[in-house]
């Protein structure tokens, strides 16, 4: 059994995680989804009802949390105290301490439920709550765990993040940038492998010229966070408007930046040119991907150092044969190759961003060429079935593996794309 941890189920922002779980089940793994908390103020995804029978139901607090705590304190005291010591180290930070305490109780509940079942490995995505729970459950059940890392910005203190990475039997890095981050935390190079986030090409038919809308659409899709750089996109749209370019920009997503961006859109007099429909379903987003002429990913590095990984929607845009204008930021250059399937500009450069978008809008032949090349690269390097096969093989190596043993040396895949730095 593979116990796959998710903070909630089924979150709209993590459809790629659920697609990976589905593919692992197709490959024969008995994957059970351990939910850490109820779905609360979270947009839910449709189309994953087939996974419902494998989800362990959860509530915020329940009697089995207490039973699990008592069971491990009485019958597995060493394992319980190992977990309690990790949580206790954060007592000087009350918010972190309360959060980690809840994760520990949720982990004890799941571990107690699975104490007599044959859990062979625990899996978690994101170097956050799910990974911490994997660390706890791996300790409580004395089974190996592995994590997938997408970003180089984390909320937990560095010591706990380093602890999680060092005790994982293998770590999947979503980008080369994420791998370097993992190594900086003390992760072992032998147990880190780059495997890109991927898409199911059965969901992305080939584009036809008749798909594009008129006027041409510049599409952006992401949570409205500062790191996404949508203020830069609005400035670029203002520049295009002043130049007399015929376009329509659609920014799909919701988040903390929405109010500020709406005010900015108004101050730049872009209401008739920039639409912000909020969060949409996968089917609605896909419809926009096929109607758009250019995909925009203006990511930046925030003053706090927060940045993107490789956004899934960039890969979805490539699968949709969309040319991309992005930035030399985070993992984006690992998918978007300058003058191959799109253009890359420095972050926080609205004038340059506008230049590249305008050039693509005025050059349909180049859009088609970039789109075709993007689709080819996506099929080569970002195919979900291939990714699931790689993850499946990694899991297979650790079935029955003791977490106290030395790590295996993982076979390095050829899944890493090379990208050119700007001259």
Quick rundown:
This protein is an alpha/beta fold and 423 residues long.
> How much helix is in the residues?
40-55%
The profile of the biggest β sheet is: 7 strands, parallel
Principal-axis shape equals elongated
Contiguous uncertain segments of 5+ residues? 413-423
Give the amount of beta strand, in percent.
5-15%
So, the CATH homologous superfamily of the largest domain?
Glycogen Phosphorylase B
In DSSP terms (H or I, runs of 4 or more residues), the helix count works out at: 14
CATH class of the largest domain: Alpha Beta
Q: Major sheet: order of its strands? A: 3-2-1-4-5-6-7
The CATH topology assignment of the largest domain is Rossmann fold
Mean pLDDT comes to 91
Radius of gyration equals 22 Å
Question: What can you tell me about this protein's structure?
Answer:
The structure is a single chain. By secondary structure, the chain is of the alpha/beta class. The chain folds into two domains: 2-198 and 385-398, Rossmann fold (3-Layer(aba) Sandwich); 201-380, 3-Layer(aba) Sandwich (Rossmann fold). Helices cover 41% and strands 13% of the residues. The chain contains 14 helices and 13 strands. It has a seven-stranded parallel beta sheet, sandwiched between helices. A six-stranded parallel beta sheet has the order 10-9-8-11-12-13, sandwiched between helices. The longest helix is centred in the first third of the chain and has 20 residues, at 94-113.
Using brief descriptors, characterize the structure shown:
alpha/beta, Rossmann fold, 13% strand, six-stranded parallel sheet, 2 domains, seven-stranded parallel sheet, 423 residues
